[in-house]
Design a protein that fits this description.
By secondary structure, the chain is mainly α. The protein has four domains: about 1-25; about 35-95, Beta Barrel (OB fold (Dihydrolipoamide Acetyltransferase, E2P)); about 110-260, Rossmann fold, CATH 3.40.50; about 275-470, no CATH class. The chain has helices at about 1-5, 10-25, 85-95, 130-145, 160-170, 185-195, 210-220, 245, 250-255, 260-270, 275-295, 300-310, 320, 360, 365-395, 400, 430-440, 460-470; strands at about 40-50, 60-65, 75-80, 180, 200-205, 220-225, 230-235, 240. It has a three-stranded antiparallel beta sheet, covered by helices on one side. Strand 1 (about 40-50) and strand 2 form a beta hairpin. It is globular and about 80 Å long. The termini are far apart. Its main location: nucleus. It is found in: Nucleus. InterPro entries: CHD, Chromo-like_dom_sf, Chromo/chromo_shadow_dom, Chromo_domain, Helicase_ATP-bd, P-loop_NTPase, SNF2-like_sf, SNF2_N. GO terms for molecular function: ATP binding. This is DNA helicase.
Length: about 475
C-alpha cells in the first residue's frame, strides 16, 4: 500500500478502473463471462487460399484472418462471404504492390521546402496550425540530417505529427521501412493513427514466438512465384514495436538493413565472448583513436578519420563528413610523400568524449599496441578506402552488394584508372567491378590477391589459395 500511495496517479487509475468496471456490469450479468466484441471484427487479412467445394465442385475462397485485439497466432481461415469486403480490398492492394528492392537516397538539405498549409491526408484529415509548424520543424531537421525531440503536452497530437512526417518522407520517395518504437500501451494507437492518416502499410511487431513467426511469414516480406520469401523486399512501410522487443536483441529485427554493419563484424569475427553491436562500435572507435594518435601521414586523412570517429552531438551526423572533400585526391604514401603542414582543427587531449574511448585504458595488450602502432597508417588508409568505395563507387547499391547481388546486375560507378596495366590477360571491366564489390563487402584487397592469378573457369590451387588467405589474428 505504501508503494501505491507514493504513486501520484493512483487516484486517477482507481477512478478509471471503477468507471470501466461499472460499464462492464451494465453489459453482462454477474454469471456471464465478459466477451470482447473486437474478437469477431476483422483486423487484417494475411493470406488467401483457393479451393474447390467437394460437394458441388464450385471454387471456394478462404482468407486467413487476424482478429482485432487477438494475437496473430489466433488467426483463422474464413470463407470469403464471411469477411468484410473493405478488408479484402486492403489486402489486395498490398498484394498487388511491386517489391521495392532499390532504396532511394535521402534528399539534400537544399531540397527542403516549408509547407505553407496542411495537405489533405487520408480520410480528409488535415493538420492544425500548430501541428503544421511541428511537422515543418521535423522535416527541416530530417532534411538536415539532425536528430530532434518533439516535446509537448499530452493530447496535442505528437503521434499524428510524427506519422505525417513519415507520410511526407514517404511522398518524397523514401518509402521505408520505417521503425517506430513505442511503449506497449500505445502501439495500438500508433497503428490506428497510421491507418487513419495515411495509406502506408503499418504492422505491429510484438507477441509470442508463434505470433512473430506468423508476422515474418505473412506480413514482412514479399514472396516470389515459388512462394519463397524475397529478402530485402519488405511488404510493410512502417514497423511498430516496443522497447523491450528491441532490447531483447530480437534476431528478426536485426535482419532489417537500418541496423548498420556491426552485425556483419559480429558474424565474421571469432570473439572469445559474446559482444553486442555497441561493444563492436566501441572497439572500432578505440582502435581508430589509437591509430590517429600515431598516424604520420596526410592531414586530409587525419581530419577525415577524426570526423568519422567523433560521436555525433545529439545524434547529429557531422555535416562536414557528408561533403568531405579530398576523397578522390591521391594520398602521399611512404617517406617520399610530400610533408604537409599541420592543418588539424582538433586536439585529442582536450576532447571530453575521448575519455570513454581512451586507448591507454582500454588497449592493455602491449604486443597488440605495438602491432597496431606499426600498422596504423595502413588501417586508416583502408578505412578511407572503404568509405570512398561506399560513398562514391557503390553508393545506393551498398545494401544489394552486401546481400550478395550479382554484380553484373548492379549499376555502380567505375572510377577512371590511372594505371591501365591489368593483372591477367582475361581481366576486363566485369573483373574490375567484381573486385571493387568484393573489397567493399569483405573489407580488404589482400583477401583477393590470389584470385588475380587464376584463369577464368579454372579451379585454383587450393593449397596456394589457403596459404594466401591466412589471416593475422590482429587484423
Amino acid at each position: 500500500m505504501e508503494q501505491l500511495e507514493k504513486d501520484k496517479r493512483i487516484h486517477q487509475k482507481i477512478k478509471r478502473f471503477k468507471t470501466k468496471h461499472a460499464q462492464m456490469r451494465h453489459l453482462f450479468q454477474e454469471d456471464e463471462e465478459p466477451f470482447n466484441p473486437d474478437y469477431v471484427e476483422v483486423d487484417r487479412i494475411l493470406d488467401v487460399s483457393h479451393s474447390v467445394d467437394k460437394d458441388n465442385g464450385e471454387p471456394v475462397i478462404y482468407y486467413l484472418v487476424k482478429w482485432c485485439s487477438l494475437p496473430y497466432e489466433d488467426a483463422t481461415w474464413e470463407l470469403k462471404e464471411d469477411v468484410d469486403e473493405g478488408k479484402v480490398e486492403e489486402f489486395q492492394k498490398i498484394q498487388n504492390r511491386q517489391p521495392r528492392l532499390k532504396r532511394m537516397s535521402r534528399p539534400s538539405a537544399s531540397s527542403w521546402k516549408k509547407l505553407e498549409e496542411s495537405r489533405e491526408y487520408n480520410n480528409g484529415n488535415t493538420l492544425r496550425e500548430y501541428q503544421l509548424e511541428g511537422v515543418n520543424w521535423l522535416l527541416f531537421n530530417w532534411y538536415n540530417r539532425q536528430n530532434c525531440i518533439l516535446a509537448d503536452e499530452m493530447g496535442l497530437g505528437k503521434t499524428i505529427q510524427s506519422i505525417t512526417l513519415l507520410s511526407e518522407v514517404y511522398a518524397a520517395g523514401i518509402q521505408g521501412p520505417f521503425l517506430v518504437i513505442a511503449p506497449l500501451s500505445t502501439i495500438t494507437n500508433w497503428e490506428r493513427e497510421f491507418s487513419t492518416w495515411t495509406n502506408m502499410n503499418a504492422i505491429v511487431y510484438h507477441g509470442s514466438l508463434a505470433s512473430r513467426q506468423m508476422i515474418q511469414q505473412y506480413e514482412m516480406y514479399f514472396k516470389d512465384e515459388k512462394d519463397h520469401l524475397i529478402p530485402g523486399a519488405y511488404k510493410f512501410d512502417a514497423l511498430i514495436t516496443t522497447f523491450e522487443m528491441v532490447l531483447s536483441d530480437c534476431p528478426e529485427l536485426r535482419e532489417i538493413s537500418c541496423w548498420g554493419r556491426w552485425r556483419d563484424i559480429l558474424s565474421h569475427a571469432r570473439c572469445k565472448r559474446r559482444l553486442s553491436e555497441r561493444d563492436v562500435e566501441t572497439i572500432c572507435r578505440v582502435i581508430l583513436v589509437f591509430c590517429l594518435l600515431h598516424y604520420r601521414g596526410d592531414e586530409n586523412i587525419k581530419s577525415f578519420i577524426w570526423e568519422l570517429i567523433t560521436p555525433p552531438e545529439n545524434g547529429r551526423e557531422p555535416q562536414t563528413l557528408l561533403n568531405h572533400s579530398g576523397l578522390s585526391i591521391p594520398v602521399p604514401r611512404g617517406r617520399k610523400g610530400k610533408r604537409v603542414k599541420a592543418q588539424s582543427t582538433f586536439d585529442v587531449q582536450k576532447v571530453e568524449w575521448i575519455r570513454k574511448y581512451n586507448p591507454d585504458t582500454l588497449l592493455l595488450d602491449d604486443s597488440y599496441r605495438k602491432h597496431l602502432k606499426h600498422q596504423c597508417n595502413k588501417v586508416l588508409l583502408r578505412v578511407r578506402m572503404l568509405y570512398y568505395l561506399k560513398q562514391e563507387v557503390i553508393g545506393e547499391h551498398a545494401e544489394a552488394v552486401l546481400k550478395g547481388a550479382d554484380i553484373r546486375e548492379v549499376d555502380i560507378w567505375m572510377p577512371e584508372m590511372e594505371q591501365q596495366e591489368v593483372p591477367a590477360a582475361w581481366w576486363d571491366a566485369e573483373a574490375d567491378r567484381s573486385l571493387l564489390a568484393g573489397v567493399f563487402k569483405h573489407g580488404g584487397f589482400s583477401l583477393y590477391k590470389p584470385m588475380i592469378f587464376m584463369r577464368r573457369g579454372v579451379r585454383p590451387d587450393l593449397n596456394l589459395f589457403s596459404s594466401s588467405l591466412e589471416l593475422n589474428v590482429h587484423r
